[in-house]
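Render 2,4-diaminopentanoate dehydrogenase C-terminal domain-containing protein in 3D.
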Amino acid sequence: MLPKKSYQIHIYLYIQQKILQLMQASTGTRVALWGFGGMNKIVLSYLLEKELQVVAVIGHHDVGSDAGTIAGLEAPLGVKITHPENAKEVFAEAHPNVAILATRSFLKDLEGPLRACAESKVNVITIGEEAFYSWNTEPKLTQELDALFRQNSVTFTGTGYQDAYWLYLASALVGVSLTVNRLVCHTQFNVDDYGMALCEAHGVGLTPEEFSAKFTPENSVPAYVWNSNEALAVRLGWKILKTSQVYQPIVATKDIHSKTLGGVLPIGKVTGLKAIVTTTAENQKGKVVEIETHQIGQVYYEDLEDYCQWSTHGTPSLEISCKKPDTVGITCASAVNRIQSVIAARPGYVTVNELGALI
C-alpha cells in the first residue's frame, strides 16, 4: 500500500492529467491511428467526418507517405505515416489525446503498442477482440497493462462490433425478461473484409489436416466470442464458472476467390472456422445459467452475408435477429464513438461494461 502522502500525490497527478486531457478534448480532440490497414483507413474517414483532428499515423507500410493519399482521400491529410519504432517521438511532438489501435486480435500481440502508448500518456481504444474482456484469457498481462496505464493516468479499452451486438444487444433482451436461464447467439462475418491477420486466425488456406494440427484443444487461442461471452456474464452480474470452446473447420466445396489472399481457395481447402463457445455461470440466485455463442468467420462467396441472432430461454423466451449488419462499419464507428468516454474514464484497463452503452 502506498504511504498516505505518496497516495495523495498520485491522486493529484491523476486529476491534473485528466483535467489536461479533458481541456484538450474540449478544444479539439487529437487522435493517433496505430496500424493503417483497411480498418483504420475507414476509421480515418469517420474521424474526419466527425471533425476530429488526426495528428499521427503509425504503420509498417508506406512510411513517409501522406496518410490521406494512401487512404485515397480527395486531398492529402498533412500527416505522414511513421514506423512504430518512432512512435514515441511522434507522440511527444503531436500530443494525441487518444490512439485507435487496429493491428492484431490478441493482447500479447498488442502489448508493444499498448506499452508505448501508456508510457507516452496516450489513451487507447483498440478493436483487438481479446482486449474486449481479457481478465480471464490473459490475466497476468492484463494486470501488468492495467497497472502501467494506471501509473501513467491514462486509459485503454477494447471495442468494436461486439460492443453493441455481442454485449449490449443481449443484455437488453435480458433486461426485458423476468428470468433467463440460457442465452444463445448465432453470428457470422466475412474474414476477407479484415485482412491477412484475421484470415490466418481463422485457418484460411490450410488443409483440414493442418487445421486440426493448429487448432487443438491444447493450443487454440480463444475465439473472439469467448471474451464477449465473459463480458456479457459480468454485465449481467453472473459469476463465471468456466468457458469452453470447440473449433470446426469450414472447407471449400468449390473454388472460392479470396481478395485477401489474392487468389483462389481450391476445393478442399479451409475457408474459415466455426467456433462454439459456452460460458457457464451462476446467477444472483445461485442458479447455473449458460451463454452459448456460435461464431462463423469465413471467406464469403455467392449469397453469404453477415448476421447476428440472439435468443433467450426463460420467461418470456425472446429472439432478436439482425440481418446483414455492416460489421466493418460498425466496428470502426464504435471505436470513434468511444473516444470521449475513454478520455473521461478512470485510468487503467476499463472494459466497456464500465463505460456504459454507446450513444
